[in-house]
Amino acid sequence: MTEAAEQFLLLHKLEWTDEVSSTALASKNVKKNNTFAELPSTSDLVKLKEYWTKHISELTDKLSNASTEYDIQRELAEAVLTRLVVFNKRHEK
Predict the structure, then answer these.
(1) In terms of domains, do 53 and 93 share one?
(2) Is the distance from CB of 73 to CB of 63 less than 8 angstroms?
(3) pLDDT one digit per residue (tens) for the chain, 93 residues
């Protein structure tokens, strides 16, 4: 009986990827491809643009007062990058 159980476990291990895992992955990918990606509204994108523009302006003012602040420089770089990514996302084809 122990030998039969071990053979079953070996068979289960060998067949798992072919019978269960690949089927589950395929159905997951089909479901993912069939879902509709909801786009943000124009007003939300305008609010986001205004927020990042204001934030970048504030950080630029802070940086001009304390030009050696690494934290401000890093935050400003991240804010500009975020603003650029949002701009590019809005203009994708």
Answers:
(1) yes
(2) yes
(3) 888 888 888 877 777 777 767 777 788 888 877 877 777 788 888 898 899 999 999 999 888 887 678 888 899 999 999 898 887 765 555
Instruction: Return d(Cα 84, Cα 49) in angstroms, integer.
Output: 10
CA separation for the pair 41, 47 (Å, rounded): 10
Q: Which two tokens stand for residue 91?
A: 């203009």
Residue 19: which domain range? 1-35
Q: Are residues 61 and 87 in the same domain?
A: yes
* DSSP secondary structure of 23-72: HHHHHHHHHHHHS--PPPPHHHHHHHHHHHHHHHHHHHHHHHHSTT-HHH
Q: Which token pair is 32? A: 């993912």
